[in-house]
Amino acid sequence: MIEDGNWDESILGPPSAWPACLKSAVDIMLPSHAQIVMFWGEQYVALYNDAYAPSIGLRHPQAFGRPAKENWSELWEDLKPLLDRVLHGGETVSAKDRQFYIERHGHPEQVYFDISYSPIKDENGKIRGVFCIVSETTERVRSQQALKESEERLRVLFSQSAAGIGQTDLSGRLVLVNQRFCEMLGYRRDDLVGVRFQDITYPDDLAEAERRFERLVNIGESFDMEKRCVRKDGSLVWTAISVSALRGDDGRIRQVGFIAIDISASKDAQEAERHLAAIIESSNDAILGIDLGMTITNWNAAAEKLYGYSRDEAVGKSVLMLVPEERHDEEPKILRQVSAGSVVEPYETQRRRKDGRLVDVQLSVSPIYDSSGKTIGASKISQDITARKEAERLQTVLIGELNHRVKNVFATVLAIANQTLGRSGTVQDEVGAFQERLTSMAKAHDLLTHRDWQRADLLALVRQVLEPYPPERFKIEGPPVLLPQKAVVSFSLAIHELATNAAKYGALSAAQGKVRISWRLGEGHEGANARLHFRWAEQGGPTVKPPTKKGFGSRLVERFLAAELNGRSTISYDPAGVVCEIDAVLDIDA
């Protein structure tokens, strides 16, 4: 290009006319393998060698022999001060990895060069140009930057990772650990470095860990395993550890790297799941799981026994195979309740066995949730209540028969009383009173039969005894109370006697008379039993006078009832109305 080029004579003129210093500089530049560019004169005309040409990309060859500003316009404000320092200041400017902004390939780039700019002087010592030896270091700088960024990411990963990370030598001695690994084991870093991994491994897991470590050291075989580590305080932590060889440039194993994750929580969860699975499998209750499509997903041994289907026969089938046709609406209704988050109370129903027989069961249903808390199915516990239902049916028959026979006894006693006792008015009145008392006992007996001879509701008992009287004459209030069997007949007779006396002599004998009946519950002396406070108060009747002698009714209330109920009972003959108060201990086991 120098020998054959058409030179702009207004800038440099032909090479034959160049000054000796320029010719000498060119002669040094052209054969050099170093990247060299010269900027000559006040216009900084660019001349460069073959080694330099690739560094200016698409600007070659038009940049050759032209003022630098024409082809380095985008970096001219950066480049010109450097050239001026040499041309006008006589300095030698050098820098390592000097950054420049250029557009040599049609797009902007940040590039880096090692530069050495020195003056070209003529025979009179005048500086005529700038001799630039450069070496592009862009790739090296970018590689160093990438390496630095990578190292920074690794440093952050190492120091802030949620996993324990470290290195050991080939004997297993820890040479590097991060903070997370120290936290997992409860040590400070200075205490942990230098410790052999064998010394912090739980003895039961040590043999397998050592065997795998030796294979890694000998043949480079990486491994993953779960093992327990012993913390500084002696407690154990379950870890999932991944171990691999770290090789030098020669390919030989120099150290061992590991990543350890604390899996104690998941191990505890697995143990809890195994424990729960064992409980479910060994339960005497049939337990099965279904999804929202009513497909059976789980089936324990008790379910096999109760329903007759094996696990393989049941899992994957519709739960409706267990439901009689007339009850098919039960399952969708249950799933709608479960999906809506409603509580499904235990209920009794029937299900069909594999052999076609119906079995009485009590079902308890609970929702099954996924990890996000979404309902994905239901767990069902089935208790076989066939024996109990048979017993209940038999008991109903026996109680009905007993009730019938007792009523026959009452009827026989009444008939004997009518035939045996005299016909005179006084005796007849006594017979009537006897009949009424016996009838009251019979009604109390009816209440007991409705509750399997165990207990009777106090409110129902009061209302039943007072049926012969207008209900508007009474004000009745009190909490729900179940009277034990022992107290039912006693209370029935007592209320009957109080009502009979009120109808003859007290509030119920007057048109405006009323009776207020109330009760409340308190804690018994030993905490287990309840103390009942019962009150009968008459008002609006004739002025009350104490009787000259106490009849059967008064003695029944004050003596017999108190003895039966392990309490006390009193009748007060207040002029405004008779008041009876009963303080009784209700034995919950009676």
Summary keywords:
Beta-Lactamase; single chain; five-stranded antiparallel β-sheet; 590 residues; Blue-light-activated histidine kinase; 4 domains; nucleotide-binding; sensory transduction; alpha+beta; HATPase_C_sf; 16 helices; 22 strands; transferase
Describe the protein in words.
With 590 residues, the protein is an alpha+beta fold. It folds into four domains: 136 residues, PAS domain (Beta-Lactamase), CATH 3.30.450.20; 107 residues, PAS domain (Beta-Lactamase), CATH 3.30.450; 101 residues, Beta-Lactamase (2-Layer Sandwich), CATH 3.30.450; 167 residues, 2-Layer Sandwich (Heat Shock Protein 90), CATH 3.30.565.10. Helices cover 37% and strands 28% of the residues. The chain is built from 16 helices and 22 strands. A hairpin with a 6-residue loop joins strand 19 and strand 20. The longest helix has 35 residues.
Brief overview, please?
Helix content is 37%, strand content 28%. It is built from 16 helices and 22 strands. The protein is elongated.
Task: Please describe the topology of this protein.
Blueprint: H1 20-29, E1 35-40, E2 45-48, H2 68-71, H3 76-87, E3 93-102, E4 109-121, E5 127-136, H4 138-160, E6 164-168, E7 174-177, H5 179-185, H6 189-192, H7 203-219, E8 223-230, E9 236-247, E10 253-262, H8 264-282, E11 286-291, E12 296-299, H9 301-307, H10 311-314, H11 330-339, E13 347-352, E14 358-369, E15 375-384, H12 386-420, H13 425-450, E16 455-457, H14 458-465, E17 474-477, E18 482-484, H15 485-504, E19 514-523, E20 530-539, H16 552-564, E21 568-574, E22 577-586
Parallel strand pairs: 17-19
Antiparallel strand pairs: 1-2, 1-5, 3-4, 4-5, 6-7, 6-10, 8-9, 9-10, 11-12, 11-15, 13-14, 14-15, 16-18, 19-20, 20-22, 21-22
Helix pairs in contact: 12-13, 13-14, 13-15, 14-15, 15-16
Organism: Ensifer oleiphilus
EC number: 2.7.13.3
Domain PAC: 96-149, 223-275, 345-397
